Amino acid sequence: ELKVEQNPLFLSMQEGKNYTIYCNYSTTSDRLYWYRQDPGKSLESLFVLLSNGAVKQEGRLMASLDTKARLSTLHITAAVHDLSATYFCAVDINYQLIWGAGTKLIIKP
Amino acid sequence: NAGVTQTPKFQVLKTGQSMTLQCAQDMNHEYMSWYRQDPGMGLRLIHYSVGAGITDQGEVPNGYNVSRSTTEDFPLRLLSAAPSQTSVYFCASRPPGGGYGYTFGSGTRLTVV
Questions:
Q1: Angle at the Cα of B29 (from B92 to A87), degrees rounded to 5?
Q2: Strands A55-58 and A32-37: what pairing?
Q3: Per-residue model confidence as pLDDT tens digits over A67-89
Q4: C-alpha span between B44 and B58 (Å, rounded)
Q5: For chain A, which end, N or C, has fewer CB atoms within 10 Å of the first or last residue's CB respectively?
Q6: Residues 77 to 96 of B: which have CB under 8 A from any A CB?
Q7: B33 in contact with A at a CB cutoff of 8 Å?
Q8: In chain B, what residues touch A90 (CB-CB under 8 Å)?
């Protein structure tokens, strides 16, 4: 069975702190996505990771992919309130996206 | 450039009614797919298409039909609505190859009573 597991599922943190969200998946894939979703809104693409060792950064967010370990991470540096949202990882298996359950991130001033 | 357009944004159906959720994209993307999102869960794939005339089932296809007669349009049909189909539905598309992610529509919030 294809599984994508995110942890933690809920994260409350202070502004200025660093933290990492983990995404483990159970089958071989060389394409992994990170998305952000605000309450009641659609999904916004953050990162597309295509190969082992891929690392991408945008502002305070950095994503990486280890295809051998079947693990991706989303690292948040010096969090700010605007990053409060739910973050999803999704693994692409032959044009079918298998999604993690999402990490709800709340950043307190 | 409108991206991925979904209509309607909200819909209430009675059990047993049928309806079609519309999805259109103007980016000439080959790949299109439909997902449902239930509270506290990630998205689940209903049906997908890798090009005009080609469709396939995803993880939760029962109760839904799709067709892809053109590159631009990928409608999702609910055959006989059930309360279990109450959900938010998202349509997504992406071009083949490269480092592109999927572009999502704004979603359709469906309630079946």
A1: 30
A2: unpaired
A3: 999 999 999 999 999 999 999 99
A4: 8
A5: N
A6: 90, 92
A7: yes
A8: 42-43
